[in-house]
């Protein structure tokens, strides 16, 4: 079956919603306007609406026909990124330094489209929980909603999520069982030495030199301690030190992003990171302070739910357009917290065409509106097939 006819009719509405949200981006836990729009629409469509879950999250509860106790949760993220938009489109962000550069505006519009269709037809038996989540971009909004009692207040037999993927052809789906995306941890390193005159380095303990060596040594974790078969990334993304050309600085600060694909690798990399920091401190006579923060766990799909959502996707776009052996991606997702608390699956929807070639987190990225109906049809079909009327 192709895209639902009624959902295709809603395309212009979904595009209007998406572009309005795009024009008014809101950062982590600041999604007040977006949440209000979502809540108002869900209420207008006859749903029970709950706001303020995980700070600014919204859940709409829709009951179908019949007496089934089965439930499904479907999640969309709402937040934007702290970036300056350079698309030049008519609906470009009106806020300096804020941009929907990852497509969360599109994810929200897709779920709204599915919610409107299902509220009109109610061609299912059971309950759908439409979960609109804040703060995916580093804020851990998924974790905040779970800790705020998401699945206790709105029980789900399974929960599903979707993300657009501009590096895959428009209208294709991509998923895998097990680990789909990496964990994301952050290491903040402060090196305190002894500053002095650049002409007399022997009188100083140079933290900048220690920082450079630390950067190099950290790369040996991946190249010499981890099997080439395993997936690990350590990227030093910030290095701050010094104030003048003739002064050896007193301290240096580094920040690293660490991505791993199993709990065992995650533990090993953290321990090795700590050992290297201690060794650098001893070698260069400096104090090395490490603040190692575990942020998002691996996004691990559940086998049964992968089969379910892949079948639903194949019904919409054809089996040849559904890849169930997608490679593990080293990006991360806080939907991982929901998958730790409830069975479920996360799926990618391809968005690339000749007009949409920029990747997510690029200042010229824009969501491809042509996939709105495809995504909404997937969610509608998933509900109708998993919560069939008796």
Q: What is the global morphology?
A: elongated
CA radius of gyration is 23 Å
Q: Number of DSSP strands? A: 16
In helices, the fraction of residues equals 25-40%
Average pLDDT score: 97
- Order of helix and strand elements from N to C terminus: HHHEEEHEHHEEEEEHEEEHEEHEHEH
Question: Which residues form runs of ≥5 with pLDDT under 50?
Answer: none
Main structural class:
alpha/beta
Describe the structure concisely for a colleague:
The protein is of the alpha/beta class. The protein is built from eleven helices and 16 strands. The two termini are 22 Å apart.
Describe the structure.
With 390 residues, the protein is an alpha/beta fold. It is built from 11 helices and 16 strands. The strands form 4 sheets. Strands 1-2-4-3-5-16-6-15 form an 8-stranded mixed β-sheet, sandwiched between helices. Strands 10-12-8-13 form a 4-stranded antiparallel β-sheet, covered by helices on one side. Strands 7-14 form a two-stranded antiparallel sheet. Strand 3, helix 4 (104-121) and strand 4 (127-133) form a beta-alpha-beta unit. It starts with a helix and ends with a helix.
List keywords for this structure.
390 residues, alpha/beta, 8-stranded mixed β-sheet, 4-stranded antiparallel β-sheet, 16 strands, elongated
Secondary structure blueprint with pairings:
Layout: H1 5-9, H2 11-23, H3 32-44, E1 48-53, E2 57-63, E3 71-77, H4 104-121, E4 127-133, H5 141-147, H6 150-153, E5 158-169, E6 173-174, E7 178-181, E8 184-192, E9 196-197, H7 207-225, E10 232-241, E11 247-248, E12 251-260, H8 263-284, E13 287-296, E14 299-301, H9 303-317, E15 322-323, H10 335-341, E16 344-352, H11 372-386
Parallel strand pairs: 3-4, 3-5, 5-16, 6-15
Antiparallel strand pairs: 1-2, 2-4, 6-16, 7-14, 8-12, 8-13, 9-11, 10-12
């Amino acid at each position: 079956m192709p895209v639902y006819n009624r959902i295709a009719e809603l395309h212009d509405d979904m595009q209007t919603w998406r572009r309005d949200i795009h024009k008014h981006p809101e950062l982590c836990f600041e999604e007040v306007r977006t949440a209000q729009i979502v809540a108002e629409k869900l209420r207008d469509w006859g749903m029970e609406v709950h706001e303020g879950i995980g700070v600014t999250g919204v859940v709409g509860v829709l009951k179908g026909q019949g007496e089934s106790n089965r439930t499904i949760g479907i999640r969309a993220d709402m937040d934007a990124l702290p970036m300056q938009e350079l698309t030049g489109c008519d609906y470009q962000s009106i806020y300096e330094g804020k941009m929907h550069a990852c497509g969360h505006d599109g994810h929200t519009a897709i779920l709204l489209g599915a919610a409107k269709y299902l509220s009109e037809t109610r061609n299912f038996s059971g309950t759908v929980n439409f979960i609109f989540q804040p703060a995916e971009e580093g804020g851990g909004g998924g974790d905040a909603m779970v800790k705020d009692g998401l699945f206790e207040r709105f029980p789900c037999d399974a929960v599903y999520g979707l993300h657009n993927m501009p590096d895959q052809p428009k209208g294709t789906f991509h998923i895998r069982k097990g680990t789909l995306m990496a964990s994301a941890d952050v290491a903040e390193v402060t090196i305190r030495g002894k500053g002095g005159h650049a002409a007399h380095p022997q009188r100083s303990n140079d933290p900048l030199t220690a920082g450079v060596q630390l950067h190099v040594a950290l790369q040996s974790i991946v190249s010499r301690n981890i099997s080439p078969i395993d997936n690990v990334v350590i990227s030093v993304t910030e290095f701050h030190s010094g104030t003048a050309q003739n002064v050896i600085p007193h301290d240096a600060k580094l920040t690293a992003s660490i991505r791993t694909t199993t709990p065992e690798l995650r533990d090993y990399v953290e321990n090795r990171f700590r050992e290297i920091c201690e060794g650098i401190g001893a070698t260069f006579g400096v104090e090395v302070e490490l603040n190692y923060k575990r942020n998002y766990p691996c996004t691990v799909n559940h086998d049964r739910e992968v089969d379910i959502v892949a079948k639903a996707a194949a019904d919409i776009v054809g089996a040849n357009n559904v890849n169930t052996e997608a490679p593990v991606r080293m990006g991360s997702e806080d939907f991982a917290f929901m998958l730790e608390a409830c069975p479920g699956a996360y799926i990618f929807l391809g968005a690339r065409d000749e007009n949409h070639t920029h990747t997510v987190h690029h200042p010229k990225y824009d969501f491809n509106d042509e996939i709105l109906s495809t995504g909404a049809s997937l969610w509608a079909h998933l509900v109708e097939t998993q919560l069939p009327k008796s």
